[in-house]
Amino acid sequence: MLNRGIGLGLLCFAGQVYSANITVTTTDDVVKADNQCSLREAVEYVNQGMPEAGYNGCGGKEATNTIILNGKSEYKLNKQIEIYKTVQIKSSYETNVTDNNVLGKNNAVIKMVGKDRLFLLDHTLAPPITNDDGTVVDNNALILVQFNEVSLVGCGQGGCADQGGLIYNKEGLSIQYGQLLNGSARQGGAIYNSGLYEKNKALSSVSLTRTLIKANKASQGGIVYSEIPQFVVSQSVVQDNEVTDPEAALFDVRDGFDEETSKTTGAKLTRGIWNSTIFNNKGYIVKVFDGMLVNNVTMIMNTMGLIFNAPFNQGYVANSILAKNGTEDCKVIAGGDATHMSNNLYSSGCTGIGSQALGAVKLIAGSTTEGKCDITSDGILCPFKDYADTALGYFKPRLLSTDKQLSDSLIVNHGPQLGKDLISCEGSDQRGKARPANLELCDIGAIELVVNVSTGSNIGSDLFYGGTGKMSIADQLQDGELIAADQCQALLGDNPTGKPWQAGCLKIVQTNTVSKGTTTIDQEGNVTYIPNGNWHGTDEFKLLVITSTTRFSDSKNPYLEIPTRIVQSPKNNFENKKVKTSGGSTGLITLISLFGLVGFRRFKNK
């Protein structure tokens, strides 16, 4: 049963906490009159209107239209599931008090094992409902379908479906903290969005937020194919996708809006891509039509750029890094005047007010697009990297040693000029970090470089006599890098200790004790502590370092303070004596008591 069902303890817990939700209890794709609830049965129960009697082990009295999956479990589908009622499908998982709970890192996985898409979203499939007089109830209202912390994985074969390799959508679709992986189709490798514009009528739409979109492929719309511009992608990563038609794009649109509609939608700008990282894709990235906005995007190292086709001057590309995308970062067909393509860093084709050409400036600080940042390089972006505190990786901007002031950077503090009627930066970046209130001081691209000179979290080491302490302050550096030792002389003059400067212009300030050892630091933030003898006790001090960001902070003190505590003691040579017990039952009772004392608290993600 372990491969099919959620553990009994989790079921009991889930039953208590989620008594009103629909808990999926098997990972198999089955429809069977038993007490096991599959994902297909759970959706069918919602489609039926959630009768109090339940359906094949799903739901019951007071059930809601929220379907709960077990985080990190894989749910297999043999064929598509039809959804025609409003529903939310989300992951649930346990974390303990010491976990750093990052949304999007514990997703349940829904995987197609047949050759089909995963979901068809269409409210018109619902059986007709009649009034008492026999007339049919109007069924024109769109439904809402939301996936939260769920990874959708395609069939892994060429052409999982003709349209929509993962989802065919005719409704309001929202995916948050999700993943769209391995979708394949003729149109819409991941999603096909169906529906034409009708005045005063709700339109089908796709919203992707904080989502990894990777390894999808199609002839047209390698990721999304939409019949009209009805999609938004925000705070997401778009990587390793492909569109094979040379005139198509990963985010493709069949028909643009007419002039009247364009001017209405252009005033709102709720469609497009912003605060997202897009790299290593094949084919054009997006067709920017009237009513669409591309803003604060890092779009680099793709085989082709974007297509700008906004004849009614209601499309915008702004505040973005658009570089090294084949021979042309922006292919302008119509509407790309200087105010509509503004404040971008580009290689070719994206000229506009406030925009800058990359020229001979090195883009990546390293020899590869992904991996370790070469801090000796003059590249203005670190390679793409995943970080522990966020579900999605990014290219971190850099402040170089050659930058004498922030204005020397091509990225940092390069917001649009005020009074020019230009598109401003987004309020927060891909990670959710707030951008400055002063609109002229925001950073272009997906990531806002954070400067914080407040005291960092503590580090320390416990040593036995003869030992050496090994620590790291890499996490405390946040978005900065340690100043190289050879810069410290020019920045601060001679080291007051009379010794050569170390990385970060390291200073040691004792706090509660006198100095009892020697501390060294390397360029990566690795700290080594060597005691000056076999003393028993503590050595407490603060590490003071300067980073590439703190040296430009508004504070007069460029140092970041990191409290440090070293504890040294002799080895414990107490001999471990085995004590014979009178039987296994006593030992078991003792173990139970000990586990009770541990008090290991768990919390459920909701």
From TrEMBL:
Q: Which residues cross the membrane?
A: 582-600
Q: Does the keyword Glycoprotein apply?
A: no
InterPro entries to which the protein is assigned, alphabetical: CSLREA_Nterm, Pectin_lyase_fold/virulence, Rhombotarget_A
| Domain of life according to the entry | Bacteria
Keywords in alphabetical order: Membrane, Transmembrane, Transmembrane helix
Q: What's the protein called, per UniProt?
A: Rhombotarget A
